[in-house]
Amino acid sequence: MTWIPEAASNLAGKVDGVLWLITLMSAVFFVLITVLLVYFSIKYRRRSDDDETPYITGSEPLEIIWTVIPSILLIVIFIYAYVVYKDMRTPPKDAVDINVLGKQWVWEFNYYNGKKTLNELYLKQNAPVRMVMRADDVIHSFFVPQFRVKQDLLPGRYTQLWFTPIKVGTFDLFCAEYCGTGHSKMRAKVIVLSPEAYDIWENGAQAGEGSAVAGLTPVELGEKLYKEKGCNACHSLDGTVVVGPSFKGIIGRSEEFTDGSSHTADENYIRQSILEPQSQVVKGFPPVMPSFKGILSDDDISALIAYMKTLN
Amino acid sequence: MANNTIAEHVYVPFLEEKKGILSWLTTTDHKKIGILYLVSVSFFFLIAGTIALLMRFELLTPEADFVSPHVYNVLFTLHGSIMVFFFIVPGLAASFGNFLIPLMIGAPDVAFPKLNIGSYWLYILGTIILLFALLKPADTGWTFYTPYSANTDTDVVLMTFGVFVLGFSSILTGLNFIVTIHKMRAPGMTWHRLPLFIWASYATAILQLLATPVVGITLLLLIAERTLGVGFFDPAKGGDPVLFQNFFWFYSHPAVYIMIIPAMGVISEIIPVFARKPIFGYKAIAYSSLGIAFISFLVWAHHMFTSGISEVAATIFSFLTFLVAIPTAIKVFNWTATLYKGSIQLQSPMLYALGFIFLFTIGGLTGLFLGALAADIHLHDTYFVVAHMHYVMIGGTVMGFFGALHFWYPKWFGKMFNETVAKVAWFLIFVGFNVTFFPQFFLGVEGMPRRYATYPQEFKSLMSLSTYGSWILGVGILIMTVNLIAALFNGEKAPQNPYGSLSLEWQVPSPPPHENFHEIPHVTDWTYGYGKKS
Amino acid sequence: MDHSHGHQMDPGEAYSTSKLGMWLFLGTEIMLFGGLFAAYAIFRSKYPEMFLEQHRELNREMGAINTCILIFSSMTMAIGVTAIQRGKQKLTSIMLLITILCGFAFAGVKYVEYGAKFSHHIYPDTSIFFSLYFMLTGLHMLHVFIGIAILSTMLVLTMKGKFNQKYSTPVELGGLYWHLVDLIWIYLFPLLYLIG
Amino acid sequence: MLMILTAITVSVSYVDVGIFNIIVAMSVASVKATLVALFFMHLKFEDRITWAFAIFPLVLLFLLIGMTILDTFTRIFPV
Question: Is residue B20 part of a domain?
Fold first, then answer.
């Protein structure tokens, strides 16, 4: 097992299952081909220039066999890998969100309680987390080998991944997508703490050092923006319809749009609606919302989304 | 051309038909154009290989003590771009394709000889543009991913424009070959009598023709993004950086097959000759080339499972990726079965062919890890990918390229090389290659990301081992190069058919006359009629 | 055209060989535009309002006029090809001349259109829609110019009497190219001007 | 013959000004394109190989468009 790094997340064991399955199947084929190559090369080596060889041009049964058997094995691998992948892509309901921002060449982590850390990611053992990630400039990629997770961070869009750290310890976080001169130095430490130690860290002194408005958690900031930027003029909090749809329970609500399509209101939809309100207008509402491009920063939008989540 | 009729029965090797550099650059003889390509791509192979040695030297230790990270980034960009666009895409296809296709199908030349030399001029134009781009070389990696490539202040525009021009060279070559194979076959040379190298070249040419323009327009859009402010890939303007990746891989995955399918064709030619056996499962190998070519258009997003594409798309692409493994596996089994009950002679071309099967099998099987969704999430953009693609590209294509060089060398240049030295070089290349790249699989599984100028201490022992291996590999290639060049000057005169092949190109003198065949041959049997019919 | 060295390809074979080559080239051209068409499809579905809004900036009448010009030129081109196949060199020259003039007329209209856009401060970086508009029509314009260059060469060669009913391959290949330019415009026109 | 066809295509292109319907506009364009290909470009009289190489790029083009669209519009961000 030494060739696979320590399995430090709940997903790691599952991924290792796939790795082992493919390794075993590959090994069988590799050994088969190698043995045959060597054996044939020795057994049928040319002994004289007048060697007679048979005229064999093929064998249908044999060819069918070595088409069908690999096909079946390949489908098995595909399905197994797909099942694990589906698992890796589906965060549980109780996963806690951490906002991750990648920029040349720093990792920034924003926690639910307003804490923010640079190049150090603190996690609680056995607590599922979801990374809600975006990039500031170019594409980066969040990769922790011991967790077997990897996901690119894109500018202008959120991506996500989730896992549950199961082992206390410190792990390397690499940027896996080439991002420029400092790419190979864009590494962070993932520090998984026991639940007790994590609680101490969480309540520790170094809170809120750089949240967009100092001292506010994203939710508090979101609430402030909701009032100050005028969202409250059109969007209610209690489900009543003013001008636009209410924010109550908006995250995860399935919306039908004027063009007949429908979509679940997720982070990307909210973001898009704030920046390009006319791109998707909910059915039954007038297309009157102004764009908040340049008014709300990315951090502000993230905070608003965090606030909206509390309204469910 | 009137004097040709007079000189009809006087044998003049094509190499001595006309002399002088200008006559070479303006020739329309496919064999000479093949040599032009051969020399050019080999030159770029050695350049890019040297760059690779520099990179490995830097990676001997975890810190950036030999070159700075920026220089390292430039080096791997140049290594990748030159290897891919200047060596391996035109490599076998344009050099051996040019030399062999007309000879193998019994034609005097390709369908459009003038277009053929025109393609080569475009290739040269591309290299000149690259030279200018070297004034401020790009540091984007050969994949030119946006938005990085749109923002970096290195000269991405010239570099991509050079690639764009090379793309057109590749397209026109492919076009020429397709038409040649359709229209120029000698009487009796039916599709099912064609040598498998022709089938492979045909499949390759289709990929060149129809995939390359997409990367052309993609790079053009990237240039427009940098110069005109067009924003298709710029999220700030409503564009989508992942779209660039979709477009890029629509070409660049088929490009992998542009690189490997001709090598597969070479192997299918070498093995029957040195085993004195008909190729096993001719039709399966022939049609699997076409099958691979077609499916390869539909697997591109397996380079993008972690890039933020949709799960539905990832699943479909993963499935199609597994489909492409099937025809590949069939080929490997068929080659191995051809050896059964043969009379196997382990001369240098055959050693390269067997080396190909061995290494390509590893390359192919490790591809399964990268096609499988969950496994790829862990392995993507690590050294596992680096090792895999080098097993396919060096273990596959370059082994095929070297095999082809040794196999057709007597025919092309009319000289024999030193066989003992060739075997020693093969051994060093084989060992050096494995020492260089096998440890990288383990590095990848352990999580070492690619394109890292510096790396954590824990990877040091395997990284150093890999660097030592690269030295052995370098020495092997150097010996091979010297051996082949030396043979030009003091090699023995090659007989017409030293290896006893039945293929048409061996039925004319070595080197072939300018017009290939005094009389267009009438073909009555397939190419692989070795062995005793019972 | 010396297609081969010692062995001359028979003319019929040479003709069909060249035509196949041209068709393959047209396939490449389609894929070259294909990337832009794919980008169009994606961004149009992503931002339908933007496309609806901004396509009104385009001058539909000019687009329609240009469509007519190109279709007409395609017809004269086809007549020209048929004429040379029957050995009517004079008719061919006239038809080629008309086709080339149509090409210039098309370019002229396009010039006026671009000028109008620039005077309204609309540039390729104005929006995704105009990026597409300028890239698609710009690439197409480039093809029109290449086409004009090819056809002008054909015109000169025809007037010199190089072509007749036995040998007219280059004219036909030039014609195929010109028809493709027309064909692509047939799609560009509705995509950009009509349905935005 | 060609004149009539041209007249038809031109008139159709006038008629469809004002019809804001992607399907109608694209089918009209496709009919026009098919006519140009079949008659102006003599595709009707070409052999099977030419047909294959005329149609195959279109198939690939649809696959390129189809698969990129599929990716772009099935990106889900579960909440």
Answer: no
